[in-house]
Automatic annotation (TrEMBL):
One of its GO terms (cellular component) is cytoplasm. InterPro entries: PFD_beta-like, PfdB, Prefoldin. The keyword Lipid biosynthesis does not apply. Residues 112-133 have a biased composition (Gly residues). It is found in: Cytoplasm. Its main location: cytoplasm. This is Prefoldin subunit beta. Heterohexamer of two alpha and four beta subunits. It comes from Halorussus gelatinilyticus.
């Protein structure tokens, strides 16, 4: 399909496709981390409404193990902190991939005579935000 492209342009196009896949993977990981973060924050909020003497259990694999209020709170706070860092890291990675994509796209367009012809890549599809062009 791209047999008419110069080898350098073909290589850039393949790099764009790889970056697009990377962007999709990062976006999926970020969505999963955000979901886990929301769940942990909700659980932590609910813990505030529970009497400290209430019997609680936490899931460990296939089992539910009795746990204390303080331990549950500490575990959830640690999980929230960890997930906030994970989401922040993935957001930065997402931005870097987007910048690389736009730079590579620009190089390819210049290589092919500027203008960004029809049918070219439109962006890594990272969900709303800055599109290509």
């Amino acid at each position: 399909m791209q047999g008419n492209l110069p080898p350098e342009a073909q290589e850039k196009l393949e790099e764009l496709q790889d970056l697009q896949e990377t962007a999709q993977q990062v976006a999926m990981q970020k969505n999963q981390a955000e979901t886990q973060l929301n769940e942990a924050e909700t659980a932590l909020d609910e813990l505030d409404d529970i009497d400290e003497d209430t019997t609680m259990y936490r899931e460990v694999g296939e089992l539910f193990v009795k746990t204390g209020y303080d331990e549950a709170q500490d575990d959830l706070e640690e999980k929230v902190d960890s997930l906030e860092i994970r989401v922040e890291t993935l957001e930065k990675q997402e931005e870097r991939v987007q910048e690389q994509f736009e730079s590579l796209q620009s190089e390819l367009q210049n290589m092919l005579g500027g203008g960004g012809g029809p049918g070219g890549p439109q962006g890594p599809g990272m969900g709303g935000g800055a599109g290509g062009a």
